[in-house]
Backbone:
C-alpha cells in the first residue's frame, strides 16, 4: 500500500454508539476524492481522526507516512483542514485573522503566503472586512485560505459548499477544482452531484461502513448500466413471483408497494440484459395477466440511494456489489483501477500494531 492517506480498520465509538465499523481506504497522492454519504454516515468522524482532532477507538490512519496517533504534529503539517463548523473570529478582519493563524501554524514568510492565499481564494479585496460581516460563501473562502496557509500537500474539506447559494456553490467548486490540480484532496459531501462536479473518485460511506470505493466511471459502468424489470399483476403475486424467479439473468426480487389487489415486483437483472420480451412470453405461457411490464435503468443517483439505504443490503447483489466482511466492494472494477482502490476486508492485525 502506498497511499498518501491510508486508513486501516478504523473504528470509532462515541460511548456505546459505534460511528465507524472498521473502515479501510487508501488515497494515492494527487487524487481528488469525494467522501460521499448521508447525514450521520461518519464522514466528519473520519476526517477528524485523519486530522488528529479526535482519536480512533481502534485501527490506524497514516498520512504521508506518519501515524496519526504517533506523530500528530507531523500529520497536521501535511494537511490543510476545513472543518464542518469553521472556527472563525467574527470580530477579526480577514487579513488579521490569517496573520494570526499563520503565526500559530509557524508559516515561513507569512506576509507573502497570506497574500498568495487571499489571491487564490479571491479574498484580496475583502482583506479589511470584519469576518462577522461576510456572507457564508466568503466565510468559506476564509476557511479555505486558512487551510492553504501552510501550503500543505493534502487538503481535507468537510462539506465545503453546505449552506451556500447556487452561485457561491459554483464558485467554491471552481476553486476546489483548481486546488485539486496541486493537492491530494478529500472532500465530504452528501450530494452526489458535488462529487461529479469536482472529483473523479468516490468513497461511499453509510452508517460507518464503506459501501463503494471507485472512480465514478467505474461506478457508472458497473452499476448504473444495470437494469431492473418492473412487473405487475393482479392477485397476491404468487404466479408473478414464480415467473420472475425463472427469468434468465434475474438476480434478485423486490416486492414494491402496489394498489390493493395487485402485486408489483422489481427484478434485478444481470448486466444490461433487457428481459421484457422474455417476461411477456413467460406471462403468456403461464397465463399471468400483466398490468405492468417496464425496464428501468439505474442512474448514478439511484445507485447512491441504494447503497446508502438502510434496507439496501438485500438488493446489493442485483446492483453488482459483492459483500465482504465489514465492507462492500465493487465486483466489476476495470483492470486499470489501482490496487487498494476497492475496499478491503478488515486488516488482520491487532489494533495499534504498526507496519513499516
Ligand atoms: N461527539 C459525538 N458524540 C456522540 N456521537 C457523535 C459525536 N459526533 C458524531 N456522533 C455520531 O456519530 C455518527 C457519525 O457522525 P458524523 O458527524 O461523523 O457523520 P457525518 O457523516 O459527518 O454526518 P453529517 O452529514 O450530518 O455531517 C452519527 O450517528 C453521530 O450522531
Ligand atoms: Mg459531518
Residues:
Amino acid at each position: 500500500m502506498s497511499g498518501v492517506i491510508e486508513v486501516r480498520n478504523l473504528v470509532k465509538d462515541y460511548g456505546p454508539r459505534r460511528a465507524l465499523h472498521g473502515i479501510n481506504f487508501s488515497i494515492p497522492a494527487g487524487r481528488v476524492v469525494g467522501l460521499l454519504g448521508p447525514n450521520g454516515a461518519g464522514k466528519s468522524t473520519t476526517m477528524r481522526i485523519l486530522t488528529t482532532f479526535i482519536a480512533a477507538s481502534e485501527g490506524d490512519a497514516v498520512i504521508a507516512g506518519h501515524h496519526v496517533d504517533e506523530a500528530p504534529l507531523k500529520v497536521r503539517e501535511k494537511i490543510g483542514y476545513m472543518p464542518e463548523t469553521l472556527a472563525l473570529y467574527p470580530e477579526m478582519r480577514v487579513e488579521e485573522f490569517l496573520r494570526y493563524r499563520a503565526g500559530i501554524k509557524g508559516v515561513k514568510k507569512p506576509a507573502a503566503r497570506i497574500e498568495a492565499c487571499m489571491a487564490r481564494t479571491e479574498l484580496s479585496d475583502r482583506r479589511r472586512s470584519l469576518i462577522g460581516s461576510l456572507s457564508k460563501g466568503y466565510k468559506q473562502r476564509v476557511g479555505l485560505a486558512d487551510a492553504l496557509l501552510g501550503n500543505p500537500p493534502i487538503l481535507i474539506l468537510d462539506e465545503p459548499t453546505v449552506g451556500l447559494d447556487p452561485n457561491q456553490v459554483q464558485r467554491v467548486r471552481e476553486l476546489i477544482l483548481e486546488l485539486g490540480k496541486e493537492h491530494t484532496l478529500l472532500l465530504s459531501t452528501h450530494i452526489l452531484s458535488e462529487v461529479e462536479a469536482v472529483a473523479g473518485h468516490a468513497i461511499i460511506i453509510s452508517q460507518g461502513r464503506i459501501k463503494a470505493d471507485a472512480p465514478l466511471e467505474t461506478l457508472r459502468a458497473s452499476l448504473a448500466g444495470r437494469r431492473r424489470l418492473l412487473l405487475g399483476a393482479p392477485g397476491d403475486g404468487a404466479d408473478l413471483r414464480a415467473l420472475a424467479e425463472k427469468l434468465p439473468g434475474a438476480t434478485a426480487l423486490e416486492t414494491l408497494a402496489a394498489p390493493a389487489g395487485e402485486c408489483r415486483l422489481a427484478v434485478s437483472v444481470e448486466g444490461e440484459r433487457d428481459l421484457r420480451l422474455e417476461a411477456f412470453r413467460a406471462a403468456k405461457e403461464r397465463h399471468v395477466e400483466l398490468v405492468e411490464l417496464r425496464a428501468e435503468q439505474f442512474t448514478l443517483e439511484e445507485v447512491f440511494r441504494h447503497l446508502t439505504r438502510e434496507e439496501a443490503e438485500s438488493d446489493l447483489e442485483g446492483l453488482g456489489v459483492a459483500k465482504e466482511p465489514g465492507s462492500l466492494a465493487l465486483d466489476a472494477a476495470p483492470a486499470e483501477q489501482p490496487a487498494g482502490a476497492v475496499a478491503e476486508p478488515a486488516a488482520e492485525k491487532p489494533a495499534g500494531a504498526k507496519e513499516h
Q: What stands out?
A: The first helix runs from residue 43 to 50. Residues 43-44, 84, 158 surround magnesium ion (ligand 2) (CB under 6 Å). The longest strand covers residues 17-27. The CA atoms of residues 231 and 293 lie 5 Å apart.
